[in-house]
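Just wondering, does anyone understand what follows?

——
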Amino acid sequence: MAVWVLPIHLYALLVPLILIPAANNNRLLLEEKIFNVELLFLAAAILVLGSLFEIIQNHIDRWFVSTESASGNGYSLMDGLFAFFILLGQALILIALIGQSNIVKAFAVICVLAGPILYYRKQLVFLPTSLIGTVNTIVAFIIFNDWVIFMQIITVALTIIFFNRLLDTGNQFYHGLTTLAASSGVLFLAFVINNASYG
C-alpha cells in the first residue's frame, strides 16, 4: 500500500464538510440564488457517510485495490453503499440548487432509484452519478456564473484516468490519486459559493 492512501481517504471522508461553512457563511446570498440551503448540509453529511463505506471496503480489501478486490471491481455491500450514498449526496446538491423544478426533482429521483438497480446488474454503474454530476456542474455555473466549477469535470476525468491506471498497473500510488481526484470536486462548489459573495 502506498503510504499516503489512508491519509488521503481521511481527506475524502472530511472534505465534503467544506460545504457546511461555505453554505452557512453565505446563507443570505444562497437563499436568493438556490432552492434550499439546508439540503447542502444534508448532502455534506450523506457524502461523508458514503466515504465512510468506501473506507470500510478498503479496509476489508486491506487497502489494496485490484481487479479482484471489491474496491476494484466495484461489487460488494460496502462498495454498493458507497456508490449509493455518493449518488444520493449528488442528488441532494442538485435539488438544493434547483429543486423548484419538478423536472429536476424527477430526474434526481430517477437517478437515485436507477443507481442501485444498475449496480446490482453490473451495467452502467457510474451513469446515474455521472449524469447528476454533469447537471450539477452546469446548474452551478448558471447560478454562480463562475467557470471554476468546471474543474469538477476535470476531477472526474482524472479519477477515471487514475483508476484505470491503478487497475492496469496495480501500483497503489494511483489509488491515492484516484481518491484525491474523486473527492476534490466538492472543493470547487464550495469555492464558487464563497467566490459569489465577493463577485
In short: The chain has a mean pLDDT of 94.
